[in-house]
TrEMBL record:
Gene3D superfamilies: lambda repressor-like DNA-binding domains. Pfam families: YdaS_toxin. Transmembrane segments: none annotated. GO terms for molecular function: DNA binding. This is YdaS antitoxin of YdaST toxin-antitoxin system. InterPro entries: Lambda_DNA-bd_dom_sf, YdaS_toxin-like.
Length: 80
């Protein structure tokens, strides 16, 4: 089974508590982001990406281009 992006970020950060501490949220909040109905808040994604290397596209696969249109490649923009 493929590792969830939040799980990967937490592993790289040193655990759910460590990731939460980095973001100023509880480890419980981080766990909630594993639920497919509860996305990682967009405001936290750039910091997660910077510190763990887990991309904003992976953290918010359904709507990343709404928040970060600059991440669209010229090819992606042509298709849209």
């Amino acid at each position: 089974m493929k590792e969830h992006p939040v799980e990967r970020a937490a592993r790289i950060a040193g655990g759910y508590k460590a990731l939460g501490d980095l973001l100023g949220v509880t480890k419980g909040a981080v766990h909630q982001w594993l639920d497919e109905k509860r996305h990682v808040p967009a405001a936290h994604c750039p910091k997660i990406e910077t510190f763990t290397g887990v991309s904003r596209k992976d953290l918010r696969p359904d709507d990343w281009n709404k928040y970060w249109p600059e991440l669209e490649s010229p090819r992606t923009a042509e298709v849209a």
